[in-house]
Amino acid sequence: MRSPTGAVAASEPTPRRSAAPASAGRRLRPAVRKPLVVLHVVASVSWLALMLCLLTLGVTALTTGDADRLRTAYRAMGLLGDALILPLGLLTFLSGVALGLGTSWGLFRYYWVSTKFWLTLGAMTASVLALTDRLHDAVRVADAHPTGPITVADLGFVRYNTVIVPAVALTLYLFNVVLSVYKPWGRRKAKAVGGRKANAAVRRAAEAADARRGRIPGAGA
Fold it and tell me: What does the DSSP 8-state code read for residue 2?
């Protein structure tokens, strides 16, 4: 469409240019993203190392015949659990969520990312609730028998819980590492629906801009 002065009116680029910054604005700047990646890696590795330490102490307590060594192992497990499980779990989970929301990976665009999200959430919840309780049980057994031998009857199922729960948690975290490295299963098909909705929104914005210029939506220049 020509203006009264004979110049050709501008067409679709205006709404398309206005849509681009909105998408880019959801992405983290490198100055923010890189420290966040470092935080996520450090927290994840520390969480993995914590589970390995707890498993080592649990196996030591299960196999030792020395009551003093058993008490030391259980008290160390309680100390590590109270000090590190909650902060490391939250740091790992929240930094991962921030990276998913602030990068092109998203949280639910890819199967491996969404699987890792739910596994991490479940593992963190189980660690904070179930694992912490099992460690407290072990500490109570050690405190109830400050000296002398501790019999199998005194320990009950505590000696197995302090091995089983860290082993399951460690397995989940190792599986998350495998997911992060291999990134299997590809992209979720639901993304195509989101893409069509985004394209429709761009078209509506273009038609609205054309209407404001006095053009008929969908008509040529």
Answer: B
* The pLDDT value given to residue 18: 38
**How far, in Å, are 35, 202, 207, 211, 215 from residue 1 at the CA level?**
51, 21, 14, 12, 8
In the chain, which stretches have pLDDT less than 50? Answer: 1-25, 191-193, 217-218, 220-221
- 64: helix, strand or coil: coil
Phi–psi pair at 110, nearest 5 degrees: -120, 145
Contacts 24+ apart (CB under 8 A), 68-73: 70/142, 70/150, 71/142, 71/145, 71/146, 71/150
Rounded Cα–Cα distance for residues 18 and 11 (Å): 13
Q: 17-64, pLDDT tens digit by residue?
A: 433 334 444 688 888 899 999 999 999 999 999 999 999 999 999 999
CA distance 38 to 34: 6
Angle at 112 between CA 111 and CA 118, to 5 degrees: 90
Measure Cα distances from 92 to 18, 118, 196, 197 in Å: 35, 13, 33, 33
pLDDT at 56: 96
Residue 164 has a pLDDT of 93
Distances (CA, A) of 193 to 14, 112, 187, 190, 201: 25, 19, 13, 5, 12
Tokens of 18: 């206005």
